[in-house]
Amino acid sequence: MPRGRRSSKRPYGAPPEALDVDRALGGRRSESAADGEWTVQHVRGGAKTYTCPGCRQDVTPGTPHVVAWRADALLGAEVAVEGRRHWHSSCWQARHHRR
Asked: Is-above-0.70 flag for pTM?
């Protein structure tokens, strides 16, 4: 059986780097808050303009932001993903302090 080339990215015998879970999941994580369970994903920016539900201002194309949807939606995960919203990162972090 032919042997493949050895990787030149790390020295032979060196331990592998720790897994960056956030990167492996595409920046997606779960959050628990007073308003329920959320799936939150950080994105680098998109090609569209969205309206942030926190401040009602535009999230302009190319702006890094947060996309969030309910993880505990009553009608299921598919409906929850359809109801996802794009937030400015600071608005997402501050959403509980406004009440």
From this structure: no
